[in-house]
Each structure stands twice: as C-alpha cells, then as structure tokens.
Amino acid sequence: MAAAAQSQGKQVAGCNYVALDEIWKDHIHLEVSASKQWPESWGFLSQRYEDLVQGEVTKKTRTERHVPTPLRLPPITPIEKIINVKPSPKPFPMTTARTIGWRSSRPEYALERYGRYANPKGGLIKQLNWPLDGID
C-alpha cells in the first residue's frame, strides 16, 4: 500500500496545476497584447502596394526599338584547310616510356612553330651581374 501511495504522490508531485495555469495565462496575455500592437507596427503589410506608393513612383514609358535583321555569317571554312595534321611517323615506339614526346622530337612534328618560347638566360642576378655576396 505504501508503494501505491508513493507512485501516486510522484505523479501528482510532477504536475503543478497552479503553475501551469499561470504559464497559460501569461501566454494568453502576450497574445492579446501583441494582437493590439500589431496594426501600429506592421499594419502596412496588410495594405496594397499601390495604396502605399501613391504618387511616389512614376510609370516608365517604353519606346519602340528598331531591331536589325539577323547578321549574315560567312560560310564555314573546313577545319582541314586551317589545321594540317600529318600522319604519325613509323615505327610506333615499342614501350610506353618511349611514347612520351616521340612525335614532337622530330622537327616536322614540332609543336613550337615559331621557335623556342623560353630563352635560357639564367636568373635575374646573372643578367644584372650582381655579386652573389650581396644577395641574402
């Protein structure tokens, strides 16, 4: 019997009806006060946009634009006239290590048509003839 009384006491002790009622009253009070203050703070949201900006915005007039006729493109030049790809030299390399750069090593298949891009002149210090002792 003592165990039944303790279990009922725990259930009742965990529920404070007066405190829950005060919390509910506070929520209701905040809802009522917020509903009274809302039109003053946010009432403009319920109005139409046109009513809010009467006379402030001028309507833009559209002007007609003359659209030119579509441009005529020149006929397309075949790619064979622009790029000339020669057949690969024979024999094909036997190993994969030899395939790297095997085609560009021959002058007729060189990728650099206009000569070397980098001129090996050394560093800036060598070009200016500065002594190495003055460089940190």
Explain this structure.
The structure is a single chain. By secondary structure, this protein is mainly α. The chain has a domain of 45 residues. Helices cover 40% and strands 0% of the residues. The chain is built from six helices and no strands. The longest helix is centred in the first third of the chain and has 26 residues. The radius of gyration is 44 Å and the shape is elongated. The protein starts with a helix and ends in an 8-residue tail after the last helix. The mean pLDDT is 76.
Largest sheet: none
Q: Which percent bin holds the helix content?
A: 40-55%
How far apart lie the N and C ends?
Answer: 94 Å
Structural class: mainly alpha
What is the mean predicted local confidence, pLDDT?
76
Cα-based radius of gyration, to the nearest Å: 44 Å
Structural shape: elongated
Encode the helix/strand succession as letters: HHHHHH
Number of DSSP strand runs: 0
What is the count of helical runs? 6
Low-confidence stretches: none
Share in β-strands: under 5%
Topology:
Layout: H1 2-13, H2 17-42, H3 49-52, H4 79-82, H5 96-99, H6 124-128
Pfam families: LLC1
InterPro entries: C20orf85-like
In short, what is this structure?
The chain has 136 residues and is mainly α.
Can you tag this structure with a few keywords?
136 residues, mainly alpha, 6 helices, C20orf85-like
